[in-house]
Design a protein that fits this description.
Structural class of chain A: alpha/beta
Largest interface: A-B, 48 and 48 residues
CATH topology of the largest domain in chain A: Rossmann fold
Oligomer: homodimer
Distance between the termini of chain A: 42 Å
Amino acid sequence: MINIFTKYIAAALILMLSLGVQGGNAADVSEHDPLPSWADGPVKSAILGFVRDVTQEGGADYVSHEGRIATFDNDGCLWVEQPMYPQIMFAVDRVRELASEHPEWASEQPFKGILEDDMASALAAGKHGLMEMIVQTHAGMTAEQFEKIVLDWLSSRKHPRFERPYTECVYQPQLELLVYLRANGFKTYIVSGGGIQFLRPWTERVYGIPPEQVVGSSVVTEYQVIDGKPALIRKPEVNFIDDKEGKPVGIYEHIGRRPILAFGNSDGDMQMIEYTTAGEGRRLGLYVHHTDAEREYAYDREGHVGKLDKALDRAEEEGWIIVDMKRDWLKVFPDAGE
Amino acid sequence: MINIFTKYIAAALILMLSLGVQGGNAADVSEHDPLPSWADGPVKSAILGFVRDVTQEGGADYVSHEGRIATFDNDGCLWVEQPMYPQIMFAVDRVRELASEHPEWASEQPFKGILEDDMASALAAGKHGLMEMIVQTHAGMTAEQFEKIVLDWLSSRKHPRFERPYTECVYQPQLELLVYLRANGFKTYIVSGGGIQFLRPWTERVYGIPPEQVVGSSVVTEYQVIDGKPALIRKPEVNFIDDKEGKPVGIYEHIGRRPILAFGNSDGDMQMIEYTTAGEGRRLGLYVHHTDAEREYAYDREGHVGKLDKALDRAEEEGWIIVDMKRDWLKVFPDAGE
């Protein structure tokens, strides 16, 4: 009798958990704090309240599972983007590696500057120059070869200040938020200005976000059969830029539904958040404001990386939530080895 | 005691089912035939054997959930494409509707032919002419407006021969296969030469495939804020053609993983199936061969719709499975009202 009873309780518990994982209101099942790295306060309350309201069956703000789409920027929102976007660091390493195959780079910016360790003159090539560098160094190989190059680079390089792999320079509060949203039936997406195929090889392991839920910028790809073997060849030509006005377009093309929650950190995310919060019913738009020079970095209106200026001005009137890193995050990075 | 025991059995059963739905081997849980509209024989055995092998933990051919990607063409593979692709019928109706706004169409093919009920001269405009017709009639409105136009059309039009809505001219055996694959942990996708946004408004209801799992051809879309309201504006310009060599490219861009099962019915699907079956480990490539003029249509090497020619020649040497509609499908369409 006791044995059967114990088994029944165990089965029921597993069943409850299993339903929770499939999207029931997991927050009701367990009483622990689902966001332990978020400081108590208005920001955390807004997030918890939003999730409670859109998952409450019969409530005025209820959204069925299908509509629970949450999109996150990556650079500066899920992982560190200072002192320079990791993908630019990757491209710089690729330039050095490929230089012998490209004698013309010795006299062309930004390649020349990089090869001469003169980053100031390389950066002077501006946005167009950096784009050209990314396109040139991310093409000319198959999809599989590029994936291997990305993974090899990530496993061999460390962030210059934090001295840990870039994939460990991710924000612990955001990892908790992603888990919490999924436990409440959300599909979590990355919508990044960065390269879609630079992200996909590792987002599932690091964020629990599978490749098919990553949207990003891309180069043109061609299908070819080489020596009887099908291959996808990456061409040195821009296909799509998933930034600013491009983000809602990328969402429309890849997801085909408007998110109900969008999280960014720069003016490049403003259109995504504007589009998300303009939808009917409850919506949540959030920005990470980098205010913590001690634990991470402090920056907003100035600079070449992650500029947050216009969106900061509009946030209050639009009801977008500004997450103050210093105030709202009790912890920034996961403990080493986590 | 009996009460507790009954509850325990019920909980355990629900638990088993719930695990099955999450991707366990559901075929083992129930003993009923998961594919009742498929005739017993080598084709059905090949499908059941494939699914059994890739879901058998510890087996040589085991594929984890993440890798269980199945892609299906739509026209002629999931729904009827004869006597003409439904999307072309939609575009023809759109031409008639929009004619007053386009006086130039009175003298331009294929528009002129359509407006004069002279389909032969309209079709003489060829592939380029039809593409131009699709692009012109699918653009110039917001994403939301287009979705409404598509749904209104589908609910008001019927297939000329079967006299039922196009969304009921879907293949019952394929509906069963989609459910069976998902019950075994597969993610099911549509990868269609047709318009991605023509499909997305209804694929979830009809096939259980959500919009984010639909890949297709597209027009250029622009994000604009009009009178303070964000909108995605569809432009009369081709963005991507998801056909032939385009299908593996569309899969790479949208899904980012190679499928392990691909199902098509025409030469337009050949590269998708070639790419899928060239991957390592167990793979399955399948073609619907339309051999049933009585219940549906019989066509392959000739004609303007769903030509199956080169792929039919290559199927045997490549080990691609040819599904003979007349022989392998006990039933073609769902019963009315199903």
